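During the second year of the project, the team shifted from modelling isolated chains to modelling whole assemblies. The rationale, set out in the original proposal, was that interfaces cannot be judged from single-chain predictions alone. As a representative example for this report, we include one of the complexes processed in the last quarter. Its constituent sequences, exactly as entered into the pipeline, are reproduced here:
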Amino acid sequence: MTTLGDYLTVSGILFAIGFSGVLLRRNVIIIFMALELMLNAANLSLVAFSRFRLGDDGLPNYNAQVLVFFIITVAAAEVAVGLAIIVALYRARRTTHVEDINSLKF
Amino acid sequence: MPSFLFWLFAIVMLVFGALVVINRNPIASALSLVICFLGLSALFMSLDAFFIGIIQVLVYAGAVMVLFLFIIMLLDLRAEERRKMNWVAFVGGFLVAFSLLVQILAVIGSTRMAKQAFPPLASEHVDDVRNVGLVLFGNYNLPFQVIAVLILVATIGVIVLSKRRLR
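Output from the structure prediction step:
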C-alpha cells in the first residue's frame, strides 16, 4: 500500500535532482530543464495532498489541482520567454555557457 | 494502483530525471526529460488526477519539450567539451543539494501524516475534468482570466525578444 510519505519522498528526491542540476551544470538550457524538474516536483506533492485530503463529498480536493493547472500554464509561458532570452543571448555572445556570461558579475 | 506500479514509475521517473542532469549532450537530456514527464504523468493518474496527467503529457511532454528540442537544434549545440572543472564549486553545490534532500526526507520521516495510506474515494468513477472545470470557472474565474492576459503578454514578449534589432 502506498502512503502519502512515498509520494512526498519521490517528490523531494525529484526536487533535489533539479536543484543539484541548477547548481552543478554550466549550460543555460540544462539549467532551464532542471528548473522544470523542480516545478514538477512541487506539482507532484500538490496532487498527492489533493488526493490525501478528501473534501466533504469524498472527492479529491480540486483546489490543489487547479493550482497545478495554473503552475503548468505559467511554466509553459515561462519556457517560451526564457528560451527567447537564451536565443537572444546566443546571438549576442555565441555561447550558452554561464561562465562566459558574467558582465553583471562584480 | 498496485504498489509495484507506483515504484516502477517512480524509479523510471527518478532515473531519467537524474539522467537529465548527468548527460553531457543537451539532446539526450531533453529526451530523458520527456520520459521523466511521462512517468510523472503516470504518477498523477495513480492519484486519480486524470486531467492533470493528460495536461502533463500534452503541455510538458508535447509542447514544452518540442520547444526545448527546437531551440537546442536551432542553436546547434553539441556535447559540451570538457572544461577545467571548478572542484570547490562542484563539491559545494553537491553538498548543498544533498543537505537539502536530507532535510526534506527528515521532515517527511518525522511527520505522522506521511505514514497514513490514502483514504478511499466516495465513488469509483470520478468526473475529474468536470469537477476541475467547475472549480476553475467558479471559484477561480478571475485568476483564469489573469493567466490568459499573462500568456498574451508572454507571446508579445517572445516576438519582441526574437526580433533581430530592438528599437
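Chain A has a mean pLDDT of 91. Chain A touches chain B through 73 residues (CB under 8 Å).
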